[in-house]
Design brief:
Largest sheet: 6 strands, antiparallel
Oligomer: single chain
CATH architecture of the largest domain: 4-Layer Sandwich
Number of helices: 10
Shape: rod-shaped
Number of strands: 16
Strand order of the largest sheet: 7-8-9-10-13-16
CATH superfamily of the largest domain: PPM-type phosphatase domain
CATH topology of the largest domain: Phosphatase 2c, domain 1
Number of domains: 2
Distance between the termini: 30 Å
Helix content: 40-55%
Structural class: alpha+beta
Amino acid sequence: MNRPDRSSATPRKRPLPLRRQLLLTVNLVVGIGLVALLAVDYRHELSERLEAKRGSLAEEARTILPAVRMLRARGTDAVQSHIDDVCSRMRQAQSPRHHIAVRLGDRMLQAQGHQFASERLLQDIEAAADSTRPVLTDDGVPLVTGFERQGDLAVYVSESVAQVRRHVRADVAGRALAIVIGGVVIVVIVNVLLLRLVTRPLGNLVSVVRRIADGELGIRPGRFRSAELDFLGAEIGQMSVSMARTSRDRRAQLAKARKIQEHLRPDPPVASEIDVASLYQPADTVAGDYYDIIRLDDGSWILAIADVCGHGVPAAMVAATLKTLLLSAIETTHDPGQMLRIINERFFRVTLAEDFASILIVRIMPSRMQIQYAGAGHEPGYVLSADGGIEPLASTGMLAGVLAHGDWATRSLPIGPDDRLVLVTDGVTESMDPRNQQFGRERLVRMLRDASDLRPDELVPRLGRGIEAHRRTAPVLDDITILVVALCGAREHQPAGTREQTSAPS
């Protein structure tokens, strides 16, 4: 008897390997650092180049100023001709947007050899002369200006910074390429170090842990170069040895428990009144199912089958307790309902609050060709006739161990000389196939009808094969017990009466 598992497994996203996480982290840090370094380098380099360009333009303005001062006496046309001549000698490829402007008092002159001369440009040139940063023209060209003043005379020389920026970008790109190559070399070195110092040792540890998880206990990892991994490997090895020791002790204890439980199972009856066959299949090393066959002094027989909550060692211990309680109850009464009342009172006192059991007790009276039965929440038993007729032995009260006191009705049935009693636990009807479909009571009843002419030693294997065929590859989740009993030979007469009689326990 299993309690439903309410735990639900939450799917987890598989994490990245440590080596990949470390490499991603290193690459990310290196990449962010590289971008930040290049940005700072670019701004610093551009600032220095612009300052140098501004200085060279100012030097050119200082060179032009004496000639303009001398030509001023000849008139503005001479000055205009001179600045046009100087500006035309500058190469556009080397000095893009090179332009000269002269202020003569309140009047401004500018070189006319370029198509971009304009009043607006004069304003931009003067604004750039008073700024440490380039000034954008109307068409979006950044200008830098150098100038020289002497009295009311001023010479402005401007130029586009596009060429400067191209040179700076080329220089920074060259340095960036060198840095990237260096970064790749560093990443390769880090990758090799991670492989040797982290990934490979951790892989060895993971392999050992997996082997331990698969049951290969007692193995130890090798030694490692780092103190931390060496300590972790030693602890895993110690854990493996401890688990191996614990596993050996547990196997020995389970083997002893299995031997005790087999000793508690009844021996096949040697009397000629009944014929018995059984199937006992624990879901674990030991089972929480229990059945018994006891001959009474008056010639009748007690059949008992029980299913304790859970399975494994705890359930087996409770099942062993049930055998003791059953033997004690038989000393007081032979009435199945009264026996359940006595068993329940003592079961409630000696077991834990969460322990309970289903029990079905049948008393066979061959001399009367009659049975009495009482069930405490147990899976129905069946009386199977040779003609295929089936009479269920339904529960007559609640589970044992739920309350300290309870009542279970005892019911009586006449049986024929060729009838068989079939008792099962719910591990039979609740056996699951791979699609989580139960074997079910209806399937069990159909199989019983189809095998109504079989002896117990033929019927039990037939039922076992049917359960296996239904379950296929699905695991065994609960203990399975089947008990089939048949009367051996006919009696002189079968007592008259109704098919079912009920008597309340006294």
